[in-house]
Amino acid sequence: MGQPETLYVCMGSACHQYGVYDVLPVLQRLLAERAPDSQVALKGAFCLGPCMDGIILKLGDVTIVHVNAKNIEQKFEDEILPYLTREKN
Ligand code: FES
Fold it and tell me: Is the pTM here over 0.90, yes or no?
């Protein structure tokens, strides 16, 4: 069941322009459906840095770039879920 994790979602102006508000509800649904035991806290963040590669999500030491409402499900499967379900020491 793991430790609580924080998934930071960039709410800076560039990521806002890229449509972060369309990504958020999908992300919330995916977390509830696909990782109900992972205790992930979703938090808005100020600009995370690489605006040109937005929308940016950050989970632990993983930075997820080029997120949008169309690819969030794939990004979730490929980058977020493996992190949440990884073996922890
Ligand atoms: S506004 Fe999102 S990384 Fe800068």
Answer: yes
